[in-house]
Amino acid sequence: MKFDRRLFFNFDWTLLVLILVISFIGILNIYSAGNSMDNFRQETIYIKQAQWIIIGLILIGIIICIDYRFICRFAYVIYAISIMLLLVVALFGYATHGSQRWITLGGFSFQPSELVKLTIIIALAKYFDDHMIERSYSLKELLIPFFIVLIPFLFILKQPDLGTALMLIFIAISIFFFIGIQLKSLILSVTGGFMIVPFSWFFLKDYQKERIMTFFNPENDPLGAGYHIIQSIIAVGSGGILGKGYLKGTQTQLKFLPVQQTDFVFSVFAEEWGFLGGLILMTMFLILILWCLKIALNSRDFMGMLLSFGITILIFWEVFINVGMVLGMLPVVGIPLPFLSYGGSSMVVLMMAMGLLLNVSMRRFVLHP
Amino acid sequence: MEKLNSQINGHDPGAFRKRFKIVFVVVAIMISFLIIRMWHLQVFRGDELRQKSENNSVRLRKIKPLRGLILDTNGQVLVDNQPSFDIIFVPNRSRNIDNVAYKLKNLLAARSLAFNSEIPFLGKKGWFPPVKLDKNISVEKLAVVETHASDLPGVTVEVVPVRKYLSGEMTAHIIGYTGEISPEELKKDTTGSLGIGDIIGKDGLEKYLDEYIKGKSGAEQVEVNVLGKEIKVIGKIEPVSGYNAVLTIDSSLQKVAWDALKDKAGAVAVIDPRNGAVLALVSTPSFDPNLFNGGISFDDWEKLSTDPSHPMGNRAISGQYPPGSTYKLFVAAAALEEGIITPDTSFTCNGSFTLGNRTYKCWNKKGHGRISLHRAIVESCDVYFYNVGKLVGVDKIAEYAYAFGLGRATGIDLPREKNGLIPTSEWKLSRFKEIWQLGETISISIGQGFDLVTPIQLVNAYAALANGGTIYKPRIVKRIETADGRILKTFEPEPKSTLPLSKETMDILTHALWGVVNENGGTGQALRRKEADVCGKTGTAQVVGLPDNENARKRIISAKFRDHALFVCFAPYKNPEIAIAVIAENAGHGGSAAAPIARKITDAYFENKNTNHKKTHPLVAADQRSQAEIYR
Q1: CB pairs under 8 A between A and B
Q2: Residue B39 DSSP symbol
């Protein structure tokens, strides 16, 4: 591949800086969350997080060197590999907290369900690029994309990981809407969806039902599932306008918050930095999302646009659902907060996604051969 | 921009531009929702929520469940629960930690009550987990702490259920004990249901049955004031009591066995040969499991764990002893079944047996004269079995001993069972890199040398002969019941294997065992009842090889090196219902030291059977006691 000097000049430094700033806030915040724990294991999690970020940056470096169109040529292979990994999880994976999500690859624990979020976006982008039509899509034409999402959805639901499974649906629906669905098909699928929802209730695990019920009626269960929400709300609210100060969040430091370094990491931030800090962080996320949407809009081709749109919408949903959950607006489902939650799989996959975005962005002027 | 979008082949840039606008707007609106909610919580409700967090007003407290009861086969409660009052100090609620500790100490000292705690938090800064200052406190102490509550911020009294071992030392080894989960155990937990401070079974059935009897922790969310006193309970999940376990143990029989053995060190195992149910299992010396309630004190632990007589070990399943003459049964079985001898094969016993330049003595120095199999077992002639063993060979003996279930764990439902040891020539080669010596075969023929068995293996082997050839897995748990008596799980008899013996062989052996007790000259005559229904075998296991010189022998036989006395039996002769193994350490001869203990057990069993037949056992009402009651 011939090196094109324009690629360097078109590199999207703004996006990279945004990512680095948010990730750095994430490390500071995880340091605070880990600081509170009296367990011997915890002090180093912020170092680990930093390592994941560095690994992610290296992956970004590799990904931007290869034209995304070349990468997408292998979209279905990548998709198939990620499905195989899910199969491996189902067969040989190990479980934590009653859910089988992990596999070990050469000493590293890895959550393939995080990867799948990205690979279905790539697969869908490839599919719609291959099957482009001028008008909106009918239900029949969406059947194959539907199955592309359904297979990993079922695997992940089985683990069980309701949050990630729903995330796949959110991504798919967002993309379907974006490329356009015929009104008739839309009405059909919505009514179909409403018929499936009560039916699917029976497939949920008890703890999932409990969480959803708790969301609708938190007073019923102020322990267990409700405990998360109540403590999280107290933590966020007690931060006030200016926050309690870094490393001074009493809710955090006294361990009132469960899983505060992963899914509830935002409550740590909001408690210590207050409304002002939260506002700044939310604004940064908003800028990030809008910036990424701009990349999608300006992309040179349909595939680049779908790819960037899918990745952007993934980040948006994760931010919205995670923060909404921490603020007690949405039920507790296990969705990490991008760049802030502690976790290698999520961080590395996000960085790879960012690599693809940078890739699309820097090649926006390159014409097809 | 227009130019670029027009290059996107196939799709209409205008349409997507519009869609992007919609997405822009939707995303911005939804993020605004989050910001508005944050405003609501942090600015609008900020003061209220800050107040809550500063008071640490909401606290999650685990409520420990009641562990299931453990009952004997007749429904008599062996293990119950009782409330224990502990003083807990929750540090983050009090401003001056040291001050509070001294205040409490002085308050108690003023009433001459001891306060043993080391005050582990002295001088500590910052937050640390709650500390248990004292456990199982007296009513007086409780009164002091409660009346001075407002002076002692952070000090609270917690009521937790602890175990009450009603049968104490008698069943300590079967039941085991409980304790707080250790960090290592917590790490090993894969179910995720255990947490810091949880009580789990540490040994015996408490450990083995933990899954069934541990119950499920409840929790309580309480609102507390700045002093750490509870204002109100916001929410509560009731703990779920554990299931009850009904054992096969008959506590009346257990008590007889315990009383008979408690002054000696040793073990008694009693099983029902028809199904492998363990009726009594005693190990002495024992310990008081109640010491472990709410955490054993360091001194008590030190005393128990360093005691040279190992009171904590369950000798009945993990004590490995040379079987002595009780092993002759298996040698005889091998010889008969392999056709190496017939019941009429006889050897002459002159009191000793010579192999090469070594002499092996018979216990009877005068010798038994010309003797055949039946009388050799009855009189326990060593020389006869030296001859037979030499003919059969070590590996054939081992094969039959294995078939009787020796040399490997029986699989009884208790932790820490030992395998014992049945040597083979191959084993010696791999273990010591040495060839098996014929002299060693002579030793193992009478159950000495390398041979090691556990009491439960021994009784199980004899029980198999008694029931016509089936080896059962010994069972100590009969069933698991819910608190209201619904049967959750029944543990059925588990036949493991059958003896490779013909009925003829078994009849010959059983009759010989009958002779041991009921014929003149038999070594087990202590068991002779007027019903003439007990079959058995004595054994005397040498602890150390003793010199032949009589005087040297006497000097050496101090208590520690005296022989172990063994006795194994079953009864009645026809259709046996009970099998017993007794081992009394350093007690001397099997016939004189172990057999009388077995006698007491058989007597008690048959007496019970006759008088107790119609007596009904009311099921204890303890099951129905509610959580509330125990906390009162």
Answers
A1: 159
A2: H
CA nearest to B128 within chain A: A38
Residue A315 lies in a domain: yes
CA distances to A284, B514, B550 from B602, in Å: 85, 15, 36
CB contact under 8 A, B190 and A95: yes
ipTM of the complex: 0.90
Question: What is the rounded CA–CA span in Å between residue A47 and residue B267?
Answer: 57
Give the pair of three-digit tokens for residue A249: 């969040």
Answer yes or no: is A368 within a domain: no
Distance from CA of A72 to the nearest CA of B (A): 17
pLDDT digits (tens, 9 = 90+) for A152-201: 999 988 887 888 998 999 999 999 989 888 888 888 878 887 787 777 77
pTM given for the model: 0.61
Indicate the residue type of B365. Answer: K
Q: How far is CA B526 from the centre of its chain?
A: 32
Taking contacts as CB-CB distances below 8 angstroms, the residues of chain A near B219 are 223-224
Number of domains in chain A: 1
* DSSP states of A145-183: HHHHHHHHHHHHHHTT-HHHHHHHHHHHHHHHHHH-B-H
Q: Is B47 on the interface with A (CB under 8 A)?
A: yes
The parts of chain B modelled with pLDDT lower than 70 are 1-14, 54-60, 91-98, 115-130, 189-193, 223-232, 234-235, 544-561, 612-632
Distance CA B66, CA B419 (A): 35
pLDDT per residue as tens digits for the range B520-537:
989 988 888 888 789 999
Give the pLDDT confidence of B224-269 residue by residue, as tens digits. 655 556 666 766 777 888 999 999 999 999 999 999 998 899 999 9
Closest CA relative to residue B243, chosen from B79, B476, B482: B482
- Please report how the helices A112-130 and A143-158 are oriented relative to each other, as an axis angle in degrees rounded to 10: 180
For residue A70, being part of any structural domain is answered with yes
Cα dihedral: B282, B287, B291, B294 (round 10): -50
- Separation of alpha carbons A116 and A172, rounded Å: 12
Q: Minimal CA–CA distance to A238: which of A223, A256, A262?
A: A256
- The sign of the dihedral angle between the CA atoms of B553, B555, B558, B560 is negative
User: Measured between beta carbons, which residues in chain B are less than 8 angstroms from residue A237?
Assistant: 41-42, 45-46, 48-50, 52-53
| Beta-strand relationship, B70-71 and B244-247 | parallel
In a domain, A367, yes or no: no
User: In B285-396, at which residue ranges do the beta strands (DSSP E only) sit?
Assistant: 346-349, 352-355, 358-361, 369-372
Pick from A289, A335, A316, A285: nearest CA to A166: A335
Q: Is the dihedral of CA A341, A346, A352, A354 positive or negative?
A: negative
- Domain coordinates in residue numbering, chain B: 91-153
CA distances in angstroms from A94 to A103, A160, A209, A346, listed in the order given: 6, 12, 23, 18
In three-state secondary structure terms, B477 is strand
Among B169, B255, B259, smallest CA distance to B596 is for B259
Alpha carbon distances (Å) from A144 to A79, A150, A194, B61: 14, 10, 21, 51
Q: What is the distance between the alpha carbons of residues B518 and B531, in angstroms, rounded to a whole number? A: 10
What is the 3-state composition of chain A as percent helix, strand, coil, each rounded to the nearest 5?
A: 70, 5, 25
Active site residue B252: no
Q: Return the residue of B nearest to A237 by Cα.
A: B42
Question: Which residues of chain A have a CB within 8 Å of the CB of B19?
Answer: 178, 180
Of B182, B239, B235, B175, the residue nearest B210 (C-alpha): B175
- pLDDT computed for residue A296 by the predictor: 93
Parallel, antiparallel, or unpaired for β B266-272 and B352-355? Answer: unpaired
Domain extent, residue A142, equals 5-362
Who's near B428: CB < 8 A, 6+ residues apart?
Answer: B434, B435, B436, B440, B450
